[in-house]
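Here is an idea for our session: we take a single protein and study its fold together. To get us started, please write out a protein record for me. Once you have written the record down, we can walk along the chain together.
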Amino acid sequence: MPTPNQAATKIVVLTSDDHLIQALKGLGEGVYFTQDSERCLHNLGHVDLILLDLETISGALSEIRKMQWLCPETPIIVFVSAKRRHLAAEALSEGAWTYLLKPLELQELQPLVQQGLRYRELVRFKRQCQVTLEWHHLRLIHLLQLTTRLSTAFLKASDRDELLGAILVGITVGEGLGFNRAFLCLVDEKERILKGEMAIGPSSPEEASQIWAEIDRRRPSLFEILHDYRRVARDPNLRVNQLVKNIRVPLKEEDHLLVRCLREKRPYSFTQGQRNGQGFNELVEILGVEEFALVPLVSYEREYGLIITDNFVTRRPISQHDLEFLQLFATLATLGLEKIHTCQVLTAQIRSLEELNRQLEENKRLLVEAERFRAIGQTISRFLHEIRNPLSSLAGLARRLKEKGRVENLDHYLEVIVHEAERLELLLKDISHFVVPTTFKPRSTDLPSLVEEVLGLLGRELAEANIVLKKDYQVDNLTVFLDPDRFKEALIHLVMNAIEAMPEGGQLTVRIWPEDNHATIEVADTGWGIPKALVKKVGEPFFTTKTHGTGLGLSIAKRALELHGARFCIYPNTPAGTRVIVQLPLKEEEHGGA
């Protein structure tokens, strides 16, 4: 602590009491007597202690207030006689540190002066601590804001290079951690090597001056700097990018300080003159500095690489606080790298699943098509078999009649020929009716009653398939102009198609309501549904997504509905299944028939 005899110590005495002046001269050098405090303080620059005589200085209390304003950290000791002790109390309330009663002796004053000087040093130290704390507080707030902004940049980054550029910019810009240079080394899993990837920063003090002057002129935001850096991130002509490419360390070299930093997952700081570990001299030669910091980019399961930072231009020492902030920053950067890696893995898995799904759909289509052709082949084979029998009989009898010429019992042969011909005619008629209805006889029909009749016919199928039937008729009677037989046939195909789509059971909903000039019927199931890409093919002859049947059901239903001038649409149901909407015109008019 300073003493009154030290030349740097300055004590100002405000008094006109000669006895007091003589007593205080014994304090030694650095004691200044005056009655004009403001001029004295101005000339001295700073004061360590003020002694004030309350009785000989006019306006002493206002002097205390003035000196408190001019030098708030300097303690003030006041002197007063015992009979005017009340002035001491007022002085203390104005900010005086303590008081002494007159007359006083030097040996009595010296310990108090020493205490006052120590108090002054404590006040200065406290002030310095406050300034330091405020600086660190502001620095912390700044870094928290930076963390938020860079976290946004990291999360927005769509590829690894964009993210790596954001990491380097965040370390070096003034808005960021403020290092002069940053070098990024990444782990190459294929080669099992740690190699320099990219860097940012000036290669000389002159280049640094130009860069900083340009930044000071433009004052770009952090995101503008990020955008500019993407254009030059991998420029091979940049000196720092040439330097970083010289860093190549096999991961098997466990004692190398870069590999050690990765393995131990903690930052390192190397000060000037400190040579610590294998590879230090090599890095010093590459970087051109002996003071730098290392911070790893590692997660719980993965080593991405590490960052090397230095203050190549300013030579500012790397403090422990710098290292801690760098480690926090690296943790955020690692989260961004984890996000990119996870997205890449998920994207690859999604593509693989999409390819498997495409192959599955293709195989399903081929299977369905093969089964459809098999079903068609079986149907045609059955039809041919039914046709072949009567044709064989007719051909055999015709040959016998030709061979024998005149044949007795001709009536028997003729009866067989007629019978087989009628059988063949009936079979062809049934096939023709299966493909194209031969009649169309529309008449006024109550639509809800017709639908009820169809649902009644299919009640057994609904029960056996464990399907719940839900009916919603918004009208009790709704007369439409249709052919009951043809329309009933179409409804049967629609309902049966819905039943077959729910092999494990489900719910069938049938709704009827009038809408504008139409009567609308909805048949909705909760089955497996129809892929959107195949909806347009529904209704085509022989098209089906089932592994059985010929695919004629919906085709026949569609043809029958078209005969009635009805609209036929298919939509996906919610949450699953298919909705079929049929709209019939309410106006009575005849439509084209067979």
Notes: Confidence is low (pLDDT under 50) at residues 1-7, 539-543, 547-551, 589-594. Residues 260 and 511 are 73 Å apart (CA to CA). The longest strand covers residues 506-515. DSSP finds 17 helices and 18 strands in the chain.
